[in-house]
Amino acid sequence: MRPASVDGTGEEVRVLTVMPGLGERNLEAVLRTGAAEYPDRLAVRDRQAAFSYGELWEDCLRVAGGFAALGVGRQDPVLLMLDNHIDFVRVWLGLVGGGGVEVPVNTAYLGSILSYVINQSGARVMVVEDRYLPRLLDVASDLVGLETVVVRGRAPDGPLAWRTVALDEVLAGRAIDPVHLDPWDLHGIMYTSGTTGPSKGVRVTHAHAYGYASPSAYGVATADDVAVVALPLFHIGGQWAGVYNALIAGGSAAVLDGFSASKFWDDIRAYGCTVGLLLGAMADFLIRQPQRLDDADNPFRVAVVVPLGAEPQVFAERFGVQVCTAYGSTEASAVIASGLERVVPRSCGIIRDGFDARLVDVNDLEVPVGQVGELVVRSREPWMLMDGYHQMPDATVRAWRNLWFHTGDAFYRDESGTFFFVDRLKDAIRRRGENVSSFEVEAEISHHPAVAECAVVGVESEHSEQEIKASVVLQPGAELSGEDLIGFLTGRLPYFMIPRYIEFRDELPKTPTQKIRKEALRAAGTEGNFDAVAAGVAPARDTAR
Q1: Which of 319, 351, 324 is nearest to 340 (CA)?
Q2: DSSP SS3 for 87
């Protein structure tokens, strides 16, 4: 431990900057330590319930026993399709702390994307909110290995295709003895959108998850802090940078059911939140809210804003907080961070201790300072980066070409060693805090009988991330409106993958080898395109609500 900074009151703030030995970097050790050293301290809460560290450890062992009674063994994967609430935390901690492997599922998934993740994971058990059961039923005939569905809420009347168990039964399981976990044991299989193919399941070890979540990654959380968790728990930003980060620090986490710009600061005051991770778009939404005299009258101390915009001081001054930033990925952990001392507009920070990074060209040769190259990374300790892509050995080998993990992200670095993110090298799109695969969106658009060909790109947004533009070529003689295409995609794609802009073209620009020139589509912008927002047909944030 060392003093990291001084907060606005002048009091010393102490932050964990050195990680424990490799063998202690696992969920079971974190929970066991908390229960032994500060059992009565608040660990996590939501609007309905709260758990101290002692209670959380006891609950973990009960839930682990509940999963064991279902036949879930050590390192068996279990799918979790749950909303943000304390039950998600309890299921995750009990499953993984008991030796199982979590497979979080984006709650917007449906159709072929949902069935793909379920089948590819190899999981036999799935925990799901009752309101998502209709989506499971829609793809039941496509599922090959699912045997048991644990339902939070009320299961539908009548027999289902699987054994059905109430989540309350699992949560009230018979406690088992603590399970020893090694740093190389799997913590989870986390699905991240592919750019030229189906989503990949990232095999995350316990040491890897701990390294991403550790307060040493961000230089922020302390035992006195309360972390706000407004991001989805099925994402590493909500789960690891939110709840797990707080638990490792010995602080507490307040789990919100979602992000609301108009209610955010009221929630911060109500829960006494002092730190938290915000997407750049979230910070932008907060800045766009009408100013209030009490904007800076809040307990918030530090906001980790990712990505960092051009004027972080505007956010900091208006809301009376400190701002820092970081860069990470599901595969590569949080490898770059600014801390509170090296905050540079539009930057990500410097490489963390324990990791090496290079910026390379297409042949993996290092590029000069100031020149754009692909970020490649590796760890100086074992098991701190991904174990590979689940059941995708070829993709794993490509990602680890020349013994460095290739992030697929373009950066440049200045003389001081500060890294600046430029763009994805491929065609992934960042929208609403989600990585969107253009491949998957194009596949669904192409299912429309009037569509001959299409291409999907990310274009500039009025917020800090991107909007989705689809360029569409119709079949000869076919007719299709923007409204009709949006209607067709609604129910086939998650809300965040449905394009905002639709451009109808006679043909797509292509290279001599007939590859679509997406850079030309991006450069063309959106003027004259159909705009789903302006037309009033943009999909609701979640069609299940």
Answers
A1: 324
A2: helix
Adjacency order of strands within the sheet including 326-329: 326-329, 333-337, 350-351
pLDDT in tens, 135-153: 999 999 999 999 999 999 9
Q: What are the angstrom distances between the C-alpha of 329 and each of 36, 315, 423?
A: 32, 25, 14
CA atoms within 13 A on the CB side of 461: 21
Token pair recorded at residue 289 = 């809210």
pTM (whole model) above 0.70? yes
Mark out the alpha helices in 162-254 (DSSP H runs): 167-171, 206-213, 215-218, 236-238, 245-249
C-beta of residue 521 within 8 angstroms of C-beta of residue 469: yes
Assigned CATH class of 434-535 = alpha beta
Among 319, 218, 313, which Cα is nearest to 268's?
A: 319
Query: Rounded to an integer, what is the distance from CA 133 to the centroid of its chain?
Result: 23
Beta bridge partners of 77: 101
Domain boundary assignment for the chain = 434-535
- What is d(CA 94, CA 98) in angstroms, rounded to the nearest whole number? 6
pLDDT in tens, 421-441: 877 777 668 787 787 878 788
| CB-based burial, 95-124: b 16+ in 10 Å, e otherwise | bbbbbbbbbbbbbbbbbbbbbbbbebbbbb
- The 3-state DSSP class for residue 362 equals coil
